[in-house]
Amino acid sequence: MNSSIRPLMKKIFPVALLRFGKRLVRKTRYYGNKCQCPVCNSSLNGWKPTGYDFPVIREMQIVGSGYRLALCPVCGASDRIRLLYFFLKNKTEILKKSLKLLHIAPNEAIKRVLRTNQNLDYLSADINPDMVMEQMDITGIQYPDDTFDAIICNHVLEHIPEDRKAMKELYRVLKPGGWAILQVPFSKISQETFEVPEITKPEDREKYFGQNDHVRIYGLDYPNRLKQAGFRVEQYKWTEDENFINPGNQFGLNPDEIVFFATKP
Ligand SMILES: [Zn+2]
């Protein structure tokens, strides 16, 4: 669109309507029978590329990271967002019950689904206040104990030097009986989390952790860290769920991805 026309278009058409129109155009443009995005209900001719291609990601076999064909060209949901959507829809009561939900660093595609859900008391938050309802540092949350029924905090903890403090805070503001989905990229071949606090330069973090703003690579011990903060942790693998129907992996999920479902007893 011509840049001089854009402000005028925004005045005439509300932003939401423009976005809806754009999605409709993309649905037609990328239409096909190769795969299916459950988040935006699109039949597609393929996924678009996403992620970084750094050697450490391949060497450490980091799940939830790395260059791959996994992005929905219509709504922008990646493979891990599509799995999150399935999990929320089928394994939690988020779309049925009235819950007070804290959504940290929300992904746009999943935010759209959750925000339009009338039964949710929805709060989005991030350290960067630009695209969310409230600014929040999760190592010091401005809410009292036992505030939220549910928390979604995905791909955030790997950015936080004091991740144990953040885990304790998330646990504190969760109501007893509440749950949290706390996804992180993790190495499927490393038993232990790799972190060196002295590695602070962006280029070194890229080299050792696979992204210029990551501060560690979680290993298979990640759930233990959550347990040490007080959580009970269930690890959900969609490939082991016989009720999960995904013929030919039409939903484009990563078979190695695990949902870390944490609850507060
Ligand atoms: Zn989509």
Summarize, please.
Helices cover 28% and strands 23% of the residues.
Would you mind describing this structure in some detail?
28% of the residues lie in helices and 23% in strands. The protein has 265 residues and is of the alpha/beta class. The protein has a single domain, classed as Rossmann fold. A seven-stranded mixed beta sheet has the order 8-7-6-9-10-13-12, with helices on both faces. It starts with 5 loop residues before the first helix and ends with a strand. The relative contact order is 0.14. The mean pLDDT is 93. Bound molecules: zinc ion (ZN). The site of zinc ion has 8 residues, from loops. The site of zinc ion (ZN) has 8 residues, from loops.
What's the number of extended β-strand segments?
A: 13
CATH-defined fold name: Rossmann fold
**Overall spatial form:** globular
Strand order of the largest sheet: 8-7-6-9-10-13-12
Number of helices: 8
Number of domains: 1
The percent of residues in helical segments reads: 25-40%
- Oligomeric category: single chain
SS strand fraction = 15-25%
Termini Cα gap:
53 Å
Secondary structure category: alpha/beta
Q: What is the top-level CATH class?
A: Alpha Beta
pLDDT < 50 runs, ≥5 residues: none
Note the main sheet: 7 strands, mixed
Question: Which ions and ligands are bound to the chains?
Answer: zinc ion
Radius of gyration: 19 Å
Q: Please provide the ordered H/E string of secondary-structure elements.
A: HHEEEHEEHEHEEEHEEHHEE
CATH architecture descriptor: 3-Layer(aba) Sandwich
